[in-house]
Design a protein that fits this description.
By secondary structure, the chain is α/β, with parallel strands linked by helices. It has five helices and eight strands, in the order E-H-E-E-E-E-H-E-H-E-H-E-H. Bound molecules: pyrazine-2-carboxylic acid and zinc ion (ZN).
Amino acid sequence: MKALIIIDVQNDFMPGGALAVNEGDEIVPIINDLQQRFDLVIATQDWHPENHASFAKNHAGKKEFEVIDLEGKEQVLWPVHCVQNTVGAAFHTDLHTAKIEAIFRKGTDPKIDSYSGFYDNAHQKSTGLAGYLREKEIDELYFCGLAADFCVFYSILDALQEGFSTYLVEDATRPIDPEKFSEAKKTILKKGGGILQSSTLLN
Ligand code: VGL
Ligand code: ZN
């Protein structure tokens, strides 16, 4: 059985949002159409506390988009985004949510970032998503959402490592950095994932 995994379609990643992704809003109608073709639809939300270590403002003297060493791992310092229970953390208002059976929240630990919907960036803590999907006998995952080069990419890497057949729906995602996304696509293919367009699933 296959599932659609919608990554972080939240206001702060939309044009005008705190961590805006170019054309991020253009994927919303495509994702709404895609949902109708899946037995199971799951979503994730980036869900940070105000004091989160990924926010530049929580590091004196550091600027947004600077890369620092955070407990031995490279960490991009982001603008404050997706703070729990704020409008910025809410789904885009046009996203259809009636078919979303479960929402997995990540990035809640103030000390560590969590790009993937499966694990934090140090692979220490699981969200339970892999176990949830296995219990539902899902073996094929289709990823869409934001951002292509961060949370979508790292979710795909974990999905592949967990042994799922894994696909990226390319026109249903947008990157923060297009060059980084080009590299990410090569890595996905090299690791055995697939890349397809929504038309393949909709026709
Ligand atoms: C994301 C940067 C920081 C994402 C989340 O959803 O891709 N990117 N937090
Ligand atoms: Zn975040």
